[in-house]
Amino acid sequence: MITGLGAAFFYLFAFIAVASALMVIAARNPVHSVLYLILTFFNAAALFLLTGAEFLSMILLVVYVGAVAVLFLFVVMMLDVDFASMKRGALDYAPIGALVGIVLAAELLIVLAGNAATIIAPTDTALPTPDPAVRHNTAALGDILYTDYIFFFQIAGIVLLVAMIGAIVLTLRAPRPHVKRQNMAAQVARTPADAIEVVDVETGKGI
């Protein structure tokens, strides 16, 4: 449980995270939305760090802020998408959005009301949380991931590799005439006779 100064920082980061998350969907400029999303990720990483989950905090910064959010930002800035025309039919989905919002609000109220209930933590956990003074949870997660779950870790890597190859194949399968492609077989089979044309020009006449 977080108390004292840690609780103050927790509420500060939580307030900024919620406010920036609201600004992600409220901002009219898509670039500003992505910047607010990055701010949300930073505050969520700070919350993870306060609870002692430094591995999740660093993963959130490296993967989401360093890759996903920056990718969104570059895509939004480079594609010049007309978001005004895309938002014209947004009111048609307002009833569905309101229904989803009501369901999420009800779930949050249930969670807040359930804090009064007593939760008994199991005492016979197979993999207990390591003592931070002796061993950090990042090292413990690495030991568990590369020993007990190495098979599942490798399978997940193979699945991601196959998905990446499939996406590349589906993208490059359709021939596009305006795109220049490299034919390595033709380049290797090329001879000097095919690449060079010798022209006998008489002296003083030029080409």
TrEMBL record:
Catalytic activities: a quinone + NADH + 5 H(+)(in) = a quinol + NAD(+) + 4 H(+)(out)
Major location (coarse): membrane
Q: Please verify whether the record's keywords include Transmembrane.
A: yes
InterPro entries given for it? NADH_UbQ/plastoQ_OxRdtase_su6, Nuo/plastoQ_OxRdtase_6_NuoJ
A Gene Ontology term for the protein's cellular component: plasma membrane
Q: Which Gene3D superfamilies match?
A: NADH-ubiquinone/plastoquinone oxidoreductase chain 6, subunit NuoJ (1.20.120.1200)
Highest taxon in the source lineage? Bacteria
E.C. designation(s): 7.1.1.-
Q: Give the enzyme class.
A: translocase
| GO MF term (any one) | quinone binding
Instruction: Print the keywords alphabetically.
Output: Cell membrane, Membrane, NAD, Oxidoreductase, Quinone, Transmembrane, Transmembrane helix
Where is the chain membrane-spanning?
6-27, 34-53, 59-81, 93-121, 149-172
Q: How does it sit in the membrane?
A: Multi-pass membrane protein
Coiled-coil residue spans: none
Any idea where this protein resides? Cell membrane
Its biological purpose is as follows:
NDH-1 shuttles electrons from NADH, via FMN and iron-sulfur (Fe-S) centers, to quinones in the respiratory chain. Couples the redox reaction to proton translocation (for every two electrons transferred, four hydrogen ions are translocated across the cytoplasmic membrane), and thus conserves the redox energy in a proton gradient.
**Its family?**
Belongs to the complex I subunit 6 family.
Protein name in UniProt: NADH-quinone oxidoreductase subunit J
